[in-house]
């Protein structure tokens, strides 16, 4: 973290930070979370909550699976609330923050959801926080490029505020459909579209108002990421039917 990256984030609404966690931690968490994927490799909401992961893990329940669910949810919560994440938020967001929710997207090669491509949207459309108070820290566990479904964004669009958008299903949506509550991109931003090429084991900080989307995975490489969502302490937000956002204190 340095002034150059801070300025880049302030100007563009996103920035990449490499190796916040160790490669071993990235590999371990990826292997842990894969145990709970269904046959379609659909996204998992709030894997940091035992009850949520228990509900979404469709394997027969046994002492072993219950132990694994506890192990994964504990690690997911530890990552979300880690002091490193808190330090990132303090430096880039410049406000004391709390966690709200999390999501794991597998983008598994050759899976039912590999062709999924998110429409251009603003993450803040969902919690609808005011004062640009919403931000996500997105841990890409593997390399991400256009071929395997990386994200793209419109630099500087976070300065537009929250834009009107379609209210589309964006969790466990029908296979073959593209999620994301699509917003109208101002003409002056269309040519600014930027593909974000991300080294494995990197965190992409995204301002909640930064317009972004993603490509389909047309490769033989999966593109797993863990998204942790935060808001400035004391700000109002919508709970959401799927995300069930709630304030979670950071380390």
Give the helix/strand layout.
Elements (H helix, E strand, L loop, with lengths): L2 H10 L1 E5 L4 H12 L9 E2 L4 H7 L6 H19 L1 H11 L3 E9 L28 E7 L10 E3 L33 H4 L3 E2 L6 E6 L4 E3 L10 E8 L19
Describe the protein in words.
It is built from six helices and nine strands, in the order αβαβαααβββαββββ. It has helices spanning 3-12, 23-34, 50-56, 63-81, 83-93, 187-190; strands at 14-18, 44-45, 97-105, 134-140, 151-153, 194-195, 202-207, 212-214, 225-232. It has a six-stranded antiparallel β-sheet. It has a three-stranded antiparallel β-sheet with strand order 6-5-8, with no helix packed on it. It is globular, with a radius of gyration of 17 Å.
What attributes does this structure have?
251 residues; alpha+beta; Jelly Rolls; 6-stranded antiparallel β-sheet; 3-stranded antiparallel β-sheet
Q: Please give the CATH architecture.
A: Sandwich
Order of helices and strands: HEHEHHHEEEHEEEE
How many strands in all?
9
Rg is 17 Å
| Spatial order of the strands forming the largest sheet | 1-7-4-9-3-2
Number of helices: 6
Q: Structural class, judged by helices and strands?
A: alpha+beta
Query: Which segments are poorly predicted (pLDDT under 50) over 5 or more consecutive residues?
Result: none
Overall tally of domains: 1
Globally, the shape reads: globular
Average per-residue pLDDT, rounded, comes to 95
Strand content: 15-25%
What fold name goes in the CATH topology slot? Jelly Rolls
CATH superfamily: q2cbj1_9rhob like domain
Distance between the termini: 19 Å
Q: What can be said about the biggest beta sheet?
A: 6 strands, antiparallel
CATH class: Mainly Beta
Helix content bin: 25-40%
């Amino acid at each position: 973290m340095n002034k150059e990256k801070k300025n880049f984030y302030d100007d563009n609404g996103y920035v990449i930070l490499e190796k916040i966690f160790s490669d071993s931690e990235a590999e371990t968490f990826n292997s842990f979370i894969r145990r709970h994927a269904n046959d379609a490799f659909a996204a998992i909401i709030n894997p940091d909550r035992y009850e949520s992961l228990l509900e979404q893990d469709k394997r027969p329940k046994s002492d072993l699976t219950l132990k694994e669910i506890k192990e994964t949810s504990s690690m997911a919560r530890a990552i979300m609330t880690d002091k490193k994440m808190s330090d990132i938020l303090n430096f880039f967001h410049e406000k004391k923050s709390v966690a709200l929710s999390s999501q794991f997207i597998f983008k598994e090669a050759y899976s039912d959801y590999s062709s999924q491509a998110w429409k251009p949207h603003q993450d803040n459309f969902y919690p609808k926080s005011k004062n640009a108070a919403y931000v996500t820290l997105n841990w890409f566990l593997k390399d991400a490029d256009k071929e395997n479904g990386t994200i793209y964004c419109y630099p500087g669009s976070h300065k537009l505020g929250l834009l009107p958008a379609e209210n589309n299903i964006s969790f466990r949506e029908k296979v073959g459909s593209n999620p994301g509550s699509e917003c109208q991109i101002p003409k002056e931003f269309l040519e600014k579209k930027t593909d974000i090429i991300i080294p494995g084991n990197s965190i992409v900080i995204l301002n909640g108002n930064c317009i972004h989307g993603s490509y389909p995975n047309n490769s033989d490489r999966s593109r797993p990421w863990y998204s942790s969502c935060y808001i400035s302490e004391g700000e109002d937000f919508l709970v959401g039917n799927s995300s069930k956002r709630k304030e979670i204190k950071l380390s």
